[in-house]
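Ticket 4471: requesting a sanity check on a complex prediction with FE2/S2 (inorganic) cluster. Repro inputs:
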Amino acid sequence: MDITSTRKDDIYLPEMATVVRSEPMTALERFFEFKLDSGRELGHMPGQFAEVSIFGIGEAPISISSSPTQSRSFQMVVRNAGNVTRAMHDLKPGDKIGIRGPFGTHFPVDGEMRGKDIVFVCGGLGLVPVRSAINYVLDHREDYGYVTIIFGAKSHSERLFIDEVREWVSKENVSYTETVDRGDEQWTGNVGVITTLMTDMMVDPRKTMAVICGPPVMYKFAIMSLYKMGMVDRNIFVSFERHMKCGVGKCGHCQIDGLYVCQDGPVFRFADVAEVQEAIQ
Ligand SMILES: Cc1cc2nc3c(=O)[nH]c(=O)nc-3n(C[C@H](O)[C@H](O)[C@H](O)COP(=O)(O)OP(=O)(O)OC[C@H]3O[C@@H](n4cnc5c(N)ncnc54)[C@H](O)[C@@H]3O)c2cc1C
Ligand code: FES
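Returned structure tokens:
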């Protein structure tokens, strides 16, 4: 039985896709590039995810890390965390996977973020979906103001997209600062949690939008740092992760306090989720 589909409107049937690139990034994460076999573009926006299926094993929601501006293929970064992601780490160019999506909400880079300064605060794997937004913004550089990227990793060997950072900072009015939780003799940069990079930061809260994505513990403290700069909840966007099954608002698996993280999120305006944030995280 053919369980794949080339119909984008068929939300339960995976479309067949082929691995174009599969490269190690860190000890736990692997970088992938895929192409849909139908030849159509995925048609995502930054912050959205797709359900990736490994035939005979299962399905997992994975963020789309490339910008829709950049290629007819799409990219993902996958941490080896369980059954599906472990099987993904064995994929080689030419192998087949299934894709459903793109699903979920996106960062409003095509809407209210235009014309604004943007602060991206990313911890660990949180840089993966945000990279899509960063590259979208930098590919439309004249449409946005100053771009600040703040990244924190557990250690220097867990930093992501190191080569790409050089391209980001080569553009006008882009700053990138990073820190690691644990330093060692090879690391000469900042050591400390991500908010240590935000203590002396100045933004104009009237024309700044912030994006936060990272491990649960980071949100509360990053948001407190943004408040100190005068930022308000409606100008802060967060991306949440929950365990998911259908990915399309039908099974209730990702539901919390009436919110379907797969459909109402994963990207939320913080003003809409401030009260449920503790429970979500
Ligand atoms: C919107 C979204 C975007 C994501 N983007 C990425 C990404 O870009 N890259 C990436 O690597 N990962 C991403 N993830 C996380 C990824 O989907 C999970 O790690 C997923 O569980 C991996 O599937 P698996 O079959 O490999 O692991 P699983 O076999 O599901 O196990 C993963 C871990 O979760 C635990 N677990 C499994 N099911 C449950 C449950 N019901 N309740 C509690 N714990 C459970 C397991 O014990 C194990 O520790 C994303 C998740 C979401 C929701
Ligand atoms: S994953 Fe099924 S409703 Fe969200």
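Notes from triage: Confidence is low (pLDDT under 50) at residues 1-7. Leaving this open until the requester confirms.
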